[in-house]
Amino acid sequence: MEREGASWAQDLVSDLGHLAGTEEAIRWGFQANANPPQLRTHDRFGNRIDEVEFHPAWHQLMQVAIRHGLHALPWRMPRPGAHAARAAAFYIWSQVEGGHGCPVSMTYAVVPALRNSPQLTETWEPLITSLEYDPGLRVPSTKRGVLFGMAMTERQGGSDVRSNTTRAEPAGTAGEYRITGHKWFVSAPMCDAFLVLAQAPGGLSCFLLPRVLPDGTRNGFHIQRLKDKLGNRSNASSEVELDDALAVMVGEEGRGVRTIIDMVNHTRLDCVIGSASLMRQAVAQATHHTAHRSAFGKLLSEQPLMVNVLADIAVESEATTMLMMRLARAFDGDGQEAPFRRIATAVAKYWCCKRAIAVVAEALECHGGNGYVEESILPRLYREAPLNSIWEGSGNVNALDVLRAISREPETLEAFMDEVEKARGTLRRLDAIVDTLKREVSDLSDAEARARRVVELMAIALQCSLLLRHGDPAVAEVFCASRLGDAGHQFGTLRPNPALSGIIERANPSPPSGEVRRG
């Protein structure tokens, strides 16, 4: 945190860390997922209410997150290192439970987009940045704090939001529109307001759509059903019918994607943070379990092949965390960081989110059958892991976004390579990979088919550079040696190295002590 200018938030992060490790907080995570949200579309008189009910544990998780400013810290405290501080705190608290991070993330991300309309910012930002968690659908001006979501995806288009068919018709009052259409995937529908994309007379535009209107009536935001999802079960995700819903334009008509992209980029950062968080929790579970489990005459953590596996996932987790914090610092930076932030966000979103899936699977296997039962947290982590890779653009979308940045904004690639080459001369193998990467991006004639390979090289080169300059020397040595070609395709294929045991001890949340379970 000190390197990223966020040492001033050490107490905040430590406080969250202590709370995250308590039995009570861990219980909240299990309870929120065992008791998923319930949809109530109508009251007993047949009136539409479109409410989602949550278990008390969900509200406890949300209250902690909001009280610690995970939804708004950089906007409340616009000082150097604010985004990095918030990233570290979000990384810690997300390890307790991932689902409630969705509304927290979207509320954090909405502010840059909302600032395209100063009048809306003046009205809403004080409520967004409040540290009061105030659930329930009421007139926003009467609440102590609000949450925001977004509604972009439609069933016919998916990631291709420019094919949206939802319509926005001027309502008579300047800036107000009536929106009608269907949104296929609206996460956290209990939020107080949403940024929505719809086709206005002048083209696809962005709108602020509140759930409750100033006169206290419910807006035409009708929840059709909650999605039955693979994971992320504590969080409600829904299909929504917008029926003549009143909304206000944000930004300029016809520039909806450009307006909402600021929100998307900040939530992409949170996908990287969430993936790093999942990796860390998985590695913590695996290193702790194997340090206390004995089989074939000795602890699992002392057996050479298990040492190889544990060290491998530990260095992957550490490299991801370091990349996540560097990316968060880029969101803190001035205009000079903008080109790096533009391309590195898509690179990290593509790579780190995919690696989380593999790390969690390997950590689960370290537990054997015990990792496959619901009493363990591992099944929940495993179901959660693919989400970050899908949300805010799947792997192909982000890989192609990197190519788009390279071709349309060449300064982004220059900024990225400048960051990587700060380690030039430190390791010959990294220098060779950087030279290979330069050749790969010099000719974009068939780049779309090679996009994933190019982005993978970019991500690994950046992680190696960061570790060599700022990381633990043993972690840097093992990571670079293996990821730059000296290992197999699976975890646990590292070259034998006496430093591996120390890497595992570094990753273990509590060194082995006390009773050892056998068998």
Fold and architecture overview:
This protein has 519 residues and is of the alpha+beta class. It has two domains: 7-254, Butyryl-CoA Dehydrogenase, subunit A, domain 2 (Beta Barrel); 259-507, Butyryl-CoA Dehydrogenase, subunit A, domain 3 (Up-down Bundle), CATH 1.20.140.10. The protein has helices at 10-20, 23-34, 56-67, 73-76, 82-94, 101-114, 118-128, 256-291, 304-332, 338-366, 378-384, 387-390, 395-408, 410-420, 428-442, 447-470, 473-483, 500-507, and strands at 38-42, 48-53, 148-151, 167-170, 176-187, 193-200, 203-210, 221-226, 237-250, 293-295, 298-299, 517-518. Strands 3, 4, 5, 6, 7, 8 and 9 form a seven-stranded mixed sheet that branches. β4 (167-170) and β5 form a beta hairpin. The two termini are 41 Å apart. 51% of the residues are buried.
Could you list some keywords that capture this structure?
519 residues, alpha+beta, Butyryl-CoA Dehydrogenase, subunit A, domain 2, Butyryl-CoA Dehydrogenase, subunit A, domain 3, 2 domains, seven-stranded mixed β-sheet, three-stranded mixed β-sheet, 12 strands, 51% helix, globular, disordered C terminus
Question: What's a quick, concise take on this entry?
Answer:
By secondary structure, this protein is of the alpha+beta class. The chain is 51% helix and 14% strand.
Layout of helices and strands:
Layout: H1 10-20, H2 23-34, E1 38-42, E2 48-53, H3 56-67, H4 73-76, H5 82-94, H6 101-114, H7 118-128, E3 148-151, E4 167-170, E5 176-187, E6 193-200, E7 203-210, E8 221-226, E9 237-250, H8 256-291, E10 293-295, E11 298-299, H9 304-332, H10 338-366, H11 378-384, H12 387-390, H13 395-408, H14 410-420, H15 428-442, H16 447-470, H17 473-483, H18 500-507, E12 517-518
Parallel strand pairs: 3-6, 10-12
Antiparallel strand pairs: 1-2, 4-5, 5-9, 6-7, 7-9, 8-9, 10-11
